[in-house]
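Deliverable D4.2, example record:
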Amino acid sequence: MLAHSVKTIEDVHGLLSERQADYVNVGFTDLAGQLRSKYVSKDKFLGALERGIAMPLAAMALDVGDTLRPVTGISVGDDMTFGDGLCHVVIDSCREIPWENPRRNLLFLVEFEEPAEAPWHPRNVYRRVAAKAAQMALVPIHSCEYEFTLFDETPQSARARNFRELRTATEGKSYNLMLRQAVGVEFYGALIECCKQLDVPLEGLHEEMGAGFMEAALAHCAGVRAADNAMLFKTFAKALAQRNQRMMTFMARWSNGADGQSGHIHASLRDTSSGRGVFFKDSAEHRMSTEMRFFIGGVQRLLPEALLILGPNPNSFRRFQPGIFAPIASTWGWENRTCAIRAIGGTESSQRIECRVPGADSNPYLAMAFVIGAGIWGIEHGIEPSPAFVGSVYEKAASVPAELRFPATFGAAINALEESRTAREIFGDRFVDAYVSCKRDQEADFASLVTDIELHRFFEFA
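Output generated by the structure prediction step:
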């Protein structure tokens, strides 16, 4: 039996017996988008299928680098005991870890149970948004494109260099060059095979325009599995690189000389009864249906208020700069890569939007929940978008209305999300309050640090 064919508890029992498994990996994704997992014995796992499994709630409040951020009821509060939360095993999430021993290479995801723990769990945030779509007889279809940089470094060597003068896997710009692909065939092949074994299908993999700069396009699929695939790709691509004495970064912008690294989301909706794409209407201008227009309107309206979900770190805002193929305002246009929302024409099954705002550092569950949640809200409330933007947003930035401009700083984005009634309507007060609390603490943390540029500018002359 193949891991991805598991659908029932009986399937799980059969698979464990067939593989003679002695341990199983179980894990969940935290607010920062990191997969946290552990080995559990076969017997403990079988018990978890029936009764659930306890996971530490405080792990949901851990930032990258395991800094514990404040979340009421999880990491701060008068009643804090740092206890566990009950999780249930997601039966149909089974995957195989490529290089693990066959007797312990199965991975299952878990979800925190409703109602107490669920508001913070990214997978549950997505599922609640998808449930809203289902009430409207719609199913989300989407995928991620990830840009990342590959280095001829290890975590140890990068730290020894203080993350300066790092050696990228290639030199100079080499967009889609067959020469680079031919030279790097072993790593490309290993990454493709890794994704195959994880059942994370890739549509494309190529060199991007920059030293060591690469892009992977994941295949589209329905519902939460698309976010699962994105999370697994990021986790295991980084692990594969380190297992080969290399490193991979998904930072939004890792150096002043590098372009931003995106996590673009392609999205559309299908009717649950007919299976047809609802963004396509043959008789309409650009074949754009009313649903597609309102979906764009919802995303466009919410982007300035909830940018923090798609740009989750102070470094994320280093990417929202003119001229590096990253959005700088909540605009949309047909096949316009300078816009935040790129409308893509096509057939009934391929017409879609590309949200170009998320950085590669964004949490895929929350980023997809944002796009689908905002779009569904737009359809529900009949939100009209602005006229399609024509030409370069970078060249015409002064013409963008004030209400469509992005918050200028990380702090401003935190305030905007906290004050957004629409975000609270879509994602819930408890999620917004928890997320804002984490990010405000992160902002204070970074604001207190002395940076290299301050030393260069002021050390001698101040």
